TrEMBL record:
Keyword Nucleotide-binding appears in the UniProt entry: yes
Pathway: Cofactor biosynthesis; tetrahydrofolate biosynthesis; 2-amino-4-hydroxy-6-hydroxymethyl-7,8-dihydropteridine diphosphate from 7,8-dihydroneopterin triphosphate: step 4/4
Name of this protein: 2-amino-4-hydroxy-6-hydroxymethyldihydropteridine pyrophosphokinase
SUPFAM superfamilies per the UniProt record, alphabetical: 6-hydroxymethyl-7,8-dihydropterin pyrophosphokinase, HPPK (SSF55083)
Described purpose of this protein according to its UniProt entry: Catalyzes the transfer of pyrophosphate from adenosine triphosphate (ATP) to 6-hydroxymethyl-7,8-dihydropterin, an enzymatic step in folate biosynthesis pathway.
Length: 162
């Protein structure tokens, strides 16, 4: 079984419900179990600012799905929840990204693990730190050190899961 961390984000069509539905769908993936889910946080959009704020979270899962099979399953969940890619970094009903998959490093046309820019995104690092404060990335970077880059950033807590 592999341990993977999945970033969840939504800013359309009742984002909290979108994340809840995605988590339910992930829990029903074959040979996959959700081990932890962070609180839900509100954050400003990364791209164009003429869109609603996002609700973000991170889930820790255990799975036997290989990375590409997991990516396919997550993209299917996105499609089932109405995901349409209108513009780069634009609004979306649901975005599911594989952040980490064990200590694998993958750079392919379809998938990059660790997620290529996760260490610069507070909406990833803050919830990831919440559920895995002792985590060390394959690069040797520690989440407990990366969180310091975001000490001055206030992200609104939407739903506390603990």
């Amino acid at each position: 079984m592999a341990i993977a961390y999945i970033a969840l984000g939504s800013n359309l069509n009742q984002p909290v419900q979108q994340l809840d539905s995605a988590l339910n769908a992930m829990a029903n993936l074959p040979q996959t179990q959700i081990l932890a889910v962070s609180s839900f946080y509100c954050s400003k959009p990364l791209g164009p600012q003429d869109q609603p704020d996002y609700i973000n979270a991170v889930a820790k899962i255990e799975t036997t799905l290989e990375p590409i099979a997991l990516l396919d399953a997550l993209q299917q969940i996105e499609l089932e929840q109405g995901r349409v890619r209108l513009r780069h970094w634009g609004e979306r009903t649901l975005d599911l990204d594989i952040l980490l998959y064990d200590q694998l490093v993958i750079k392919s046309e379809r998938l990059t693990i660790p997620h290529y820019d996760m260490h610069n995104r507070e909406f990833v690092i803050v919830p990831l730190y919440e559920i895995a404060p002792e985590l060390t990335l394959s690069s040797g970077e520690k989440i407990s050190e990366l969180i310091n880059n975001f000490k001055n950033i206030q992200m609104e807590l939407v739903i506390k899961t603990k």
